[in-house]
Amino acid sequence: MARPNPIPILLLLLIVYVLMLSPVAVVQAYPHYLLNPEGCVDKKLEVGFKMMAYPAILDKVKGTPIKVYRRGQLLANGSEYKSGETLTVRVEGRAGQYCLETRGDAVFNDGACDGKRTTQEQVMALPMGEASYLKPVRLVAGIASNEFAPVVITKPFLLRAPGTMPKGGPPKADADEEEEE
Q1: In this structure, are residues 138 and 158 in contact, taking their beta carbons and an 8 Å threshold?
Q2: Minimal CA–CA distance to 85: which of 14, 173, 162?
Q3: Which of 72, 129, 172, 174 is the most exposed place for a label (fewest CB within 10 A)?
Q4: Are 66 and 75 in contact (CB under 8 A)?
Q5: Using an 8 Å Cβ cutoff, are 46 and 121 in contact?
Q6: What is the mean pLDDT of each run of 10 residues along the chain (181 residues)?
């Protein structure tokens, strides 16, 4: 009696693996793709930019899930940073994977894309210098709740340059809207 050929069975198992498991692995790793050299250049964290097969959409939730801490104390959106300080940055209260990006002269200590992006809680180093030369820093995140939904781009978290805080503290509107420079 002849033995059955194991190649068709192995081929079938390989096809099942490729069709069933590979897409999950690719989707799970997508935020990390935004950190590699190609992703740094080609993938923008902007509303309308196509990611994961859909155009990214603006977050409809009030406020921002981006939280910034100074020595353990939560800062309000629109707070003033201090020249050269380091702050802790997190995305909180959202399910899914994310990529966090800093816009301005700040960098993440272990960030990719010249220190501008990360996919985990990070320490952010803020620029140093004379107050008159420093500019605002904005933080945005792209959040993927699952592989079948569009990436959501958060409203920005604004850190004002030293010496630019309006009297009475940050305006309430800073929590929901991006301020123009």
Answers
A1: yes
A2: 162
A3: 72
A4: no
A5: no
A6: 64 55 42 73 86 87 91 93 91 88 89 88 83 88 84 92 76 46 35
